[in-house]
Amino acid sequence: MSDATLDDRGRLTLPKEMRERYGDRYHVVDVHDGIKLIPVADDPLDALRDEFADVETSAEELREAARDAALDGAGR
């Protein structure tokens, strides 16, 4: 864990090793006990493709399974 402080203009500077590891863009999320920085990939679509590269289920199959689960939950 590292400490970081805001400058007089409200800017936060992350340590170099964190910027090198996670990049330069983040979503700032307000959580119940503080904030969370979530790195944003340079190309979010490529990041999603990489994340789900090993998923063998098609989008249509996922859609159908979600639809069936919703109908079952509604008392079909």
TrEMBL record:
SMART domains in alphabetical order: SpoVT_AbrB (SM00966)
Gene Ontology MF terms in the entry: DNA binding
InterPro entries found in the cross-reference section: SpoVT-AbrB_dom, SpoVT-AbrB_sf
Domain SpoVT-AbrB: 4-45
Protein name: SpoVT-AbrB domain-containing protein
Organism: Candidatus Halobonum tyrrellensis G22
